[in-house]
């Protein structure tokens, strides 16, 4: 039996991580004040919410992770969370995307204390609030993250208590609450038949309100996790018909297309993500990876795609100068360009690509090699300012450098 993947296509603005296996993984990004009627929802202007979704241009050394620990690491609303990881302790007020099983268990173990120290419901009376705990926006973020952590660790009782408190506060007809209820049912499903029943419930809800985005995304996630990729692609395209500025949906669509080997469609979807979030360095690198894979799978236009891939990787490290995946991809792409026989090319108005000259490619390759070596060396030495990288990515970089060293010795 194939269980539903609980964190694919979050029911809220979500994040994107691209792991060493070169794939997109959606995780729930539980942003503050997203419930209509919450303490901050109406107080925040549309411009404020737009700024939360859009990375703020800064100097590369100010925004890159992990050395500088930018607090706006999770700036790509929709399906994008930047690949760089934090070495901070897990917290219930931060996104849960990159938590290890041990970290999720650590958070789930806090459930009894949190549930015991907070009332089931908060009173709106100012007099009552003087003698009891007051409602804060953070408490609902904590309940949501605690719900997800409890589902991951199998603590169904605590998960239901968190869900019950969210229902009391926001009601059964809240779109996010509907999606959370479906998420709990997915987690508790014991067989494929129960998952099919959950899917039917999603379709019933969407039949009444086709623009219920949280439920629509859960439906896509369930279709994907049960292997119905073509239906998931169709559902995502339908979602994008009425929500074309949803970066999360575009990024997930790119992932689905890529899983089917449809490189041109995946590239188009990622271009839409970059239109919405032009400073997302992880998406530039992701585009470079897809272009590199497309070049490896084709013959006719491989150099064009490799040249574009180099440009995307270079842009990603321009935006974040300690971004391991950007340097790793740049190293691979320039290696491939240097090994392939160069073909004369020129830039025209109709085609804005051109293969860089050999000297430029060689310099980029050397820069990538030096930076990868520095990251691996300092991370392995446990330098405090160079921790937070994914261990598998550091290992991949180390292997790449080792193979090149062996080739040079030979």
UniProtKB/TrEMBL annotation:
Q: Where are the TPR repeats?
A: 247-280
* Topology versus the membrane: Peripheral membrane protein
Keywords, comma-separated and alphabetical? Endoplasmic reticulum, Membrane, Repeat, TPR repeat
Question: What GO CC terms are in its UniProt record?
Answer: EMC complex
PANTHER family membership: TETRATRICOPEPTIDE REPEAT PROTEIN
Q: Which residues form the signal peptide?
A: none
Subcellular location as annotated: Endoplasmic reticulum membrane
Q: What family is this?
A: Belongs to the EMC2 family.
Stretches with biased composition (Basic and acidic residues): 45-57
**Superkingdom per UniProt:** Eukaryota
> From which lineage does this chain's organism come?
Eukaryota, Fungi, Dikarya, Ascomycota, Pezizomycotina
This protein's name: ER membrane protein complex subunit 2
Role this protein plays: Part of the endoplasmic reticulum membrane protein complex (EMC) that enables the energy-independent insertion into endoplasmic reticulum membranes of newly synthesized membrane proteins.
């Amino acid at each position: 039996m194939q269980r539903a993947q609980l964190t694919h296509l979050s029911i809220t603005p979500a994040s994107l991580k691209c792991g060493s296996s070169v794939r997109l993984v959606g995780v729930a990004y539980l942003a503050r004040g997203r419930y209509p009627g919450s303490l901050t929802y109406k107080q925040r202007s549309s411009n404020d919410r737009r700024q939360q979704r859009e990375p703020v241009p800064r100097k590369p050394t100010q925004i890159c992770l992990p050395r500088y620990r930018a607090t706006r690491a999770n700036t790509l609303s929709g399906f994008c969370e930047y690949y760089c990881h934090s070495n901070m302790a897990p917290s219930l007020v931060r996104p849960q995307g990159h938590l290890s099983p041990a970290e999720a268990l650590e958070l789930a173990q806090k459930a009894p204390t949190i549930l015991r120290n907070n009332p089931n419901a908060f009173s709106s009376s100012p007099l009552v609030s003087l003698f009891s705990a007051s409602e804060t926006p953070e408490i609902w973020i904590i309940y949501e993250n605690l719900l997800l952590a409890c589902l991951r660790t199998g603590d169904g009782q605590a998960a239901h208590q968190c869900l019950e408190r969210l229902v009391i506060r926001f009601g059964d007809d809240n779109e996010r609450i509907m999606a959370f209820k479906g998420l709990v049912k997915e987690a508790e499903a014991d067989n494929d038949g129960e998952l099919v029943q959950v899917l039917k419930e999603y379709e019933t809800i969407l039949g009444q309100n086709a623009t219920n985005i949280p439920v629509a995304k859960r439906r896509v996630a369930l279709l994907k996790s049960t292997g119905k990729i073509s239906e998931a692609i169709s559902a995502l395209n339908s979602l994008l018909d009425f929500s074309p500025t949803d970066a999360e949906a575009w990024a997930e669509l790119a992932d689905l297309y890529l899983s089917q080997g449809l490189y041109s469609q995946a590239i188009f979807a990622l271009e839409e993500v970059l239109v919405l979030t032009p400073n997302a360095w992880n998406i530039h690198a992701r585009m470079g990876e897809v272009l590199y894979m497309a070049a490896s799978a084709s013959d006719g236009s491989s150099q064009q795609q490799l040249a574009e891939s180099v440009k995307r990787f270079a842009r990603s490290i321009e935006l974040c100068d300690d971004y391991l995946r950007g340097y790793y991809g740049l190293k691979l792409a320039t290696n491939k360009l240097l090994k392939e026989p160069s073909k004369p090319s020129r830039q025209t108005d109709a085609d804005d690509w051109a293969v860089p000259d050999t000297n430029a490619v060689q310099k980029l390759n050397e820069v990538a090699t030096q930076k990868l070596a520095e990251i691996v060396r300092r991370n392995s030495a446990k330098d405090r300012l160079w921790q937070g990288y994914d261990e598998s990515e550091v290992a991949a970089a180390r292997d790449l450098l080792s193979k090149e060293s062996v080739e040079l010795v030979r």
